[in-house]
């Protein structure tokens, strides 16, 4: 099959993945809307919403895999970018409510009326327009990642230190968004959305449309990642992952590569959040919780990091498991999730995709600066 | 022999007690008779009775006198008994003037008010003042002086003079003098006397003194006004200083909590380089061990309650330490050299431990009591220190000192440092590195368990206890410098103090956010913390 290698070096897995996404994007809405509910082929709306959510998670996992699997940056704060994207679109959806809120104030969202705010804070300006909100979905997480990364990578904060400060970042943001004075609804966050572009969010067709949009976004995200990792830049990223110091000594500006990929990844996470919020109908500060970000990392590990397709697969599989567990055996879910963390790191270093595809195209990625360490150890031994 | 002496002593004591009680009873009866007499006497006789009551020097008469002065002392027509009757809705609520015993509700028509005039009121006030200010009980005197200080009643000056002359306790005498000064400032006495009074009040140097002087500065003129203003400025300085000291204290207190939570991590992360995300759960295990020890003591040996924490300490250390060794043997040793995987695996472990505790003990907070020696508070200068906090600071320092000694002065500590610095060479020297790894991890976990015993005193013992500390602990260790216990100490205390100093300006949450942002920026500047290890060990 010549198509694969020609097109961004997608490989068979990539083509299958994209094809499956395309089929789902068309088939699920059709089966939901066109097939009558009594038919065995009908897909209920709850399932559509559920899987729409999984696709957003998959996009988030993809963005984490891009930085972790290919560049060795373990971010424990990607949930922050996801939530920021969600807040950006949530702000637009709040503006769309207009005077239909509980207090019927055409100027201010309900929570601001409740808190006796007199006028709209400046940072809410512009969110009346969808194009502006969409722009912010990309810009806000991107900018945060750019500034944060610029500082961190320039001063060569790496490995677990980076993981810990990304975690501190999302924790600080969570505390900040919990404050009512921030003007983002505090504890309750943003909710009670009515419609987008005048289309009712509760309607089946809207939900099916959002599902298709999520599938499209996931596909597009996959292609972007693929384009990055199969380019020359992608090779440098892998070099950074495997031997950062060596790459730097060869003459590459390591921090620039890292910064680029970190920012792109944050924007993808933002898009995932933006698609997630209209489907679940709420965004609140608990999305920033460090635990959420770590959970997203385990999706990638389960699926197999450094494979992209595996990350998306892992997100969907783990979340199907979560939905089933929390419904059937709620008290056992944390045991299962915790066990998964331990099991995957100990016994499945290549993830599910590594099991399904034993002769993977690429050798298992060495995570940390291991070759460099070995060299220095040899030196020390001599 | 000694039995008989003791017995005789006991008999003696009992008889003295009985005699005292009889005297007291006689007093109460006379007082009651005098109070009853008020009902029928004319104004002149009433004044005589009041001064007689004052002369008896027994504070039992004070409630009756106070009620008399306020016009609440009334005659119950049904039986001719004198009662204190206070309006309560449509009816009056009556109580005994001596014992304060509740006598039920009475209709207004059934009561006859014992009349009082201004002359009498003054006499009553003086009598109350002298009864309390001249009371035999130092506690009553202190209270009376404080209440005069608050009321700044010029009518009390004469009694105060008398009390000052008679007072033997220096602290109460000072209080009396301050009360007199406060009263003097309300009169139109000569300027010199007022200036002296301002000085006396200024010496007090607290909020109360500031209020008194502020009133003076607002009303007085000339030298007194300037002196008062100057004194206020001085007091404000003192108050600001005490506020700062208080903040430092709160900061140290928070810092010691952070130190306790982080110090185990300083070993597992700092010395071994293992990212243990389940560290917080070791703290939680320690807290639950405390809970179980107290539960056992409550049901089977209540008299041991005061030492429950002392019993819990070794148990918590052993339990958490054993769990730690198990984790190291079972999971972490397979992941050495892969820190990011260790992070994920231990995170999973923390979820399992949390859920296990939730299943065993339930999701709600469990009650852990404070032993008597940890409750209460004492004053130090302008500060109020609670014993609980003092003990936690002492405990944190003790744990820290003990760890430093273990690391620097014991064979185990030496082996531990050797393995950390050069595993292969240590192994060649005959050190069983795998054992050292397991024990080091056990030590770090055990210390976390010990921290849990202390933290059970100030935090909710719930399955989420550990999670609330994990990020803070990592911040402390990273800020202080990995692989350096002293760095952890300085880091914890600095972060605690900075946090508490930010709180008044920024609020608790924003203060915490600022600290987090500060640490994130700090790590950019010094990626290896305040006290970074230098040399070759850093590179690997």
Automatic annotation (TrEMBL), chain A:
Q: How does it sit in the membrane?
A: Multi-pass membrane protein
The molecular function GO annotations come to: branched-chain amino acid transmembrane transporter activity
Which segments cross the bilayer?
Answer: 40-60, 67-89, 130-153, 160-178, 208-229, 257-277, 297-320, 332-349
Q: Where is the signal peptide?
A: none
Which cellular compartments is it found in? Cell membrane
* Key word Nucleus present: no
Question: Main site of residence?
Answer: membrane
Question: The organism sits in which domain of life?
Answer: Bacteria
Classification via Pfam families: BPD_transp_2
Write the record's keywords in alphabetical order, separated by commas: Cell membrane, Membrane, Transmembrane, Transmembrane helix
Q: Which InterPro entries match?
A: ABC_transp_permease, ABC_transptr_urea_perm_UrtC, LivM-like
User: Which NCBIfam families does this chain map to?
Assistant: urea_trans_UrtC (TIGR03408)
| Identification of the protein by name | Urea ABC transporter permease subunit UrtC
Print the organism lineage.
Bacteria, Pseudomonadati, Pseudomonadota, Alphaproteobacteria, Rhodospirillales
From TrEMBL, chain B:
> Is the Transport keyword given for this protein?
yes
Q: What InterPro entries would the database entry show?
A: ABC_transp_permease (IPR001851), ABC_UrtB_bac (IPR017779), ARM-type_fold (IPR016024), BCAA_transport_permease (IPR052157)
Q: Name one GO biological process term.
A: amino acid transport
Pfam families noted in UniProt? BPD_transp_2
Keywords, in A-Z order = Amino-acid transport, Cell membrane, Membrane, Signal, Transmembrane, Transmembrane helix, Transport
**Listed GO CC annotations:** plasma membrane
Kindly give the membrane topology term recorded for this protein: Multi-pass membrane protein
State the Gene Ontology terms under molecular function: transmembrane transporter activity
Q: Where in the cell is it found?
A: Cell membrane
Instruction: Please state the span of the N-terminal signal peptide per the UniProt entry.
Output: 1-26
* SUPFAM superfamilies linked: ARM repeat
TM ranges: 248-275, 307-327, 339-357, 390-407, 474-498, 504-523
- Spell out the NCBIfam families in the cross-references: urea_trans_UrtB
Q: Which family does it belong to?
A: Belongs to the binding-protein-dependent transport system permease family. LivHM subfamily.
Please give the PANTHER family that the UniProt record associates with this protein: ABC TRANSPORTER PERMEASE PROTEIN, BRANCHED-CHAIN AMINO ACID TRANSPORT SYSTEM PERMEASE PROTEIN LIVH
- The name this protein carries in UniProt is Branched-chain amino acid ABC transporter permease
> From what organism does this protein derive?
Thalassobaculum fulvum
The organism's lineage? Bacteria, Pseudomonadati, Pseudomonadota, Alphaproteobacteria, Rhodospirillales
């Amino acid at each position: 099959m010549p198509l694969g290698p020609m097109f961004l070096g997608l490989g068979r897995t990539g083509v299958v993945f994209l094809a499956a996404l395309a089929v789902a994007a068309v088939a699920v809405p059709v089966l939901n809307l066109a097939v009558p509910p009594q038919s065995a082929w009908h897909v209920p709306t709850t399932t559509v919403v559920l899987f729409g959510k999984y696709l957003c998670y998959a996009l988030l996992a993809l963005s984490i895999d891009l930085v972790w699997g290919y560049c060795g940056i373990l971010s424990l704060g990607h949930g922050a970018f996801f939530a920021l994207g969600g807040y950006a679109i949530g702000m637009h959806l709040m503006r769309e409510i207009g005077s239909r809120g509980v207090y019927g104030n055409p100027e201010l969202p309900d929570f601001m009326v409740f808190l006796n705010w007199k006028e709209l804070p400046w940072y809410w300006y512009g969110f009346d327009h969808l194009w502006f909100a969409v722009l912010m979905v990309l810009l806000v997480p991107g900018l945060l990642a750019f500034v944060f990364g610029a500082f961190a990578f320039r001063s060569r904060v790496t490995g677990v230190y980076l993981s810990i400060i990304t975690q501190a970042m999302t924790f600080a943001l969570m505390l900040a968004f919990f404050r009512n004075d921030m003007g983002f609804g505090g504890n309750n966050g943003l909710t009670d959305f009515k419609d987008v572009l005048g289309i009712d969010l509760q309607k089946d067709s809207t939900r099916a449309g959002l599902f298709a949009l999520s599938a499209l976004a996931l596909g597009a995200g996959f292609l972007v990642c693929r384009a990055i990792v199969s380019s020359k830049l992608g090779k440098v990223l892998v070099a950074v992952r495997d031997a950062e110091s060596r790459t730097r000594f060869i003459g590459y500006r390591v921090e620039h590569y890292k910064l680029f990929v970190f920012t792109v990844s944050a924007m993808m996470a933002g898009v995932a959040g933006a698609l997630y919020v209209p489907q679940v109908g709420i965004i609140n500060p608990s999305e920033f919780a460090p635990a959420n970000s770590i959970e997203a990392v385990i999706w990638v590990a389960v699926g197999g990091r450094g494979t992209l397709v595996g990350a998306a697969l892992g997100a969907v599989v783990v979340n199907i498991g979560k939905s089933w567990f929390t419904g059937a055996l709620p008290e056992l879910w944390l045991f299962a999730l915790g066990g998964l963390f331990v099991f995957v790191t100990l016994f499945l270093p290549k993830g599910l995709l590594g099991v399904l595809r034993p002769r993977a195209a690429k050798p298992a990625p060495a995570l940390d600066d291991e070759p460099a360490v070995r060299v220095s150890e040899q030196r020390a031994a001599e | 022999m000694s039995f008989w002496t003791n017995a005789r002593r006991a008999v003696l004591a009992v008889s003295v007690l009985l005699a005292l009680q009889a005297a007291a009873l006689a007093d109460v009866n006379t007082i009651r008779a005098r109070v009853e007499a008020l009902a029928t006497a004319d104004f002149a006789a009433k004044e005589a009775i009041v001064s007689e009551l004052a002369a008896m020097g027994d504070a039992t008469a004070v409630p009756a006198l106070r009620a008399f002065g306020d016009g609440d002392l009334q005659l119950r027509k049904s039986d001719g008994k004198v009662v204190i009757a206070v309006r309560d809705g449509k009816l009056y609520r009556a109580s005994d003037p001596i014992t304060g015993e509740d006598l039920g509700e009475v209709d207004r028509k059934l009561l006859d008010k014992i009349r009082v005039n201004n002359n009498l009121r003054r006499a009553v006030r003086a009598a109350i003042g002298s009864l309390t200010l001249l009371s035999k009980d130092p506690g009553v005197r202190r209270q009376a002086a404080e209440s005069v200080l608050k009321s700044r009643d010029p009518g009390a000056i004469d009694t105060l003079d008398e009390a000052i002359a008679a007072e033997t306790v220096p602290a109460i005498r000072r209080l009396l003098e301050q009360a007199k000064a406060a009263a003097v400032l309300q009169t139109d006495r000569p300027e010199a006397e007022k200036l002296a009074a301002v000085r006396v009040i200024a010496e007090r140097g607290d909020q109360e003194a500031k209020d008194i002087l502020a009133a003076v500065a607002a009303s007085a003129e000339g030298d007194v006004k300037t002196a008062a203003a100057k004194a206020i400025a001085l007091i404000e300085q003192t108050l600001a200083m005490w506020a700062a000291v208080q903040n430092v204290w709160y900061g140290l207190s928070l810092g010691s909590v952070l130190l306790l939570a982080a110090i185990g991590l300083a070993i597992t992360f700092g010395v071994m380089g293992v990212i243990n995300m389940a560290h917080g759960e070791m703290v939680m295990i320690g807290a639950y061990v405390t809970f179980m020890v107290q539960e056992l003591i409550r049901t089977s040996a209540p008299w041991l309650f005061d030492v429950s924490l002392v019993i819990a300490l070794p148990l918590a250390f052993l339990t958490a330490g054993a769990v730690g060794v198990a984790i190291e043997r079972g999971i972490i040793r397979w992941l050495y050299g892969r820190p990011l995987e260790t992070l994920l695996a231990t995170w999973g472990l923390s979820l399992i431990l949390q859920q296990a505790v939730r299943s065993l003990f339930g999701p709600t907070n469990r009650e852990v009591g404070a032993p008597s020696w940890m409750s209460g508070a004492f004053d130090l200068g302008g500060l109020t220190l609670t014993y609980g906090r003092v003990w936690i600071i002492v405990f944190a320092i003790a744990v820290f000192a003990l760890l430093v000694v273990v690391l620097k002065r014991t064979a185990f500590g030496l082996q531990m440092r050797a393995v950390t610095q050069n595993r292969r060479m240590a192994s060649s020297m005959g050190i069983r590195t795998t054992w050292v790894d397991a024990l080091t991890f056990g030590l770090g976990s055990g210390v976390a368990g010990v921290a849990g015993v202390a933290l059970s005193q100030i935090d909710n013992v719930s399955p989420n206890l550990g999670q609330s500390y994990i990020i803070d602990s990592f911040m402390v260790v990273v800020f202080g410098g990995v692989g350096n216990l002293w760095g952890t100490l300085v880091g914890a205390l600095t972060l605690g103090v900075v946090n508490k100093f930010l709180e008044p300006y920024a609020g608790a949450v924003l203060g915490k956010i600022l600290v987090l942002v500060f640490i994130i920026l700090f790590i950019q500047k010094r990626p290896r913390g305040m006290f970074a290890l230098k040399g070759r060990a850093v590179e690997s």
